[in-house]
User: What shape does this take?
Amino acid sequence: QVQLVESGGGLVQAGGSLRLSCVASGRTFSSYAMAWFRQAPGKEREFVAAITWSGGATYYADSMKGRFTISKDNAENTVYLQMNSLKPEDTAEYYCAADPRGFSYGSTWYNYWGQGTLVTVSS
Assistant: This one.
């Protein structure tokens, strides 16, 4: 059973930074793609960034390029999302997702999800 546990959310002022973590367990993740999505109140869940576990290829939503960086630590089975220059519109619940079939931009593709971590950016 795949388990994904996010952490690192919190309250930060606009312009600040946060680093989210997603610890994965329960499988060998070499074929997996790991992704971050976010969902703000009243809005649909949207793609943020993704990384393939084996090759380390990375993918970003256009609005996050240059501000957010996704990375992984194979030894710790952990995926990170470094978020810089945060804006109030980045306020959302952030979710880690995983799937053994590889990468997709669509949230419905991913079979495994964490419980989410809340990021609040104050102006």
